[in-house]
C-alpha cells in the first residue's frame, strides 16, 4: 500500500496563495451578489436576489453573450435553482446557478475552470445605471433655462447667481415692521426719538 505523497515544500506557499486567491474571488463574488441583490429595492437586505436582479447580473457582467447564453437561458436557470414556491434565490443558489451557466458558456473547459471563469466575470462588479436621463445642454434648452433672461415675476424667483430662491421666490413675504412697503426711511424712527 502506497502512502499519499504530500506536495513538495516549494509548492506549499503557492497552494496557499491559490487558496487565498480563491477565497478573495469568492468574497468579491459575494460582495457583487449583495450589491446586485439590493439594486432597485429599498427594502432588500442583500441576502436574497430576485429574478430581475439575476438577469441584470448576467446582462451587466456580460454572462449573456447572445450565442451560448441568452436571456431565456438565464431565466430558465433561475427557475431551476430556486425553491418551487420561492421568488428569490440566496447566495448558495446563486453559485449553483452560475455553475449551470458556466458549463453552458464554456463548453471546452472543465466544470471548475468554467465556474472560475464565470466568477471572474462577476466578481467585483456593481450594477450599472444604463439609460439614466442626463441633463442636455443643447442651445435651445440652454436659452430656455438661462435665468438672466427671465422677466416679470419669474425673474424674482432667482437670485443674482441664478439659483432658485424657493418659497421666498414664489410667495410675497409680509414684513411685520409697522412701515408701509415702499417707505424709504424705515427703521429710522427710534434713532430720531432718542435724540
TrEMBL record:
Pfam families: p25-alpha
Keywords in alphabetical order: Cytoplasm, Cytoskeleton, Microtubule
Region (Disordered): 149-172
Signal peptide: none
Subcellular location per the Swiss-Prot or TrEMBL entry: Cytoplasm, Cytoskeleton
Protein's UniProt keywords contain Plastid: no
GO biological process: microtubule bundle formation; microtubule polymerization; positive regulation of protein polymerization
InterPro entries referenced in this protein's UniProt entry, alphabetically: EF-hand-dom_pair, TPP/p25
Molecular function terms from GO: tubulin binding
Single GO cellular component term: microtubule
Domain of life: Eukaryota
Compositional bias of kind Basic and acidic residues: 153-172
UniProt-listed PANTHER family: P25 ALPHA-RELATED, TUBULIN POLYMERIZATION-PROMOTING PROTEIN FAMILY MEMBER 3
Family of this protein: Belongs to the TPPP family.
Functional note: Regulator of microtubule dynamic that has microtubule bundling activity.
Protein name: Tubulin polymerization-promoting protein family member 3
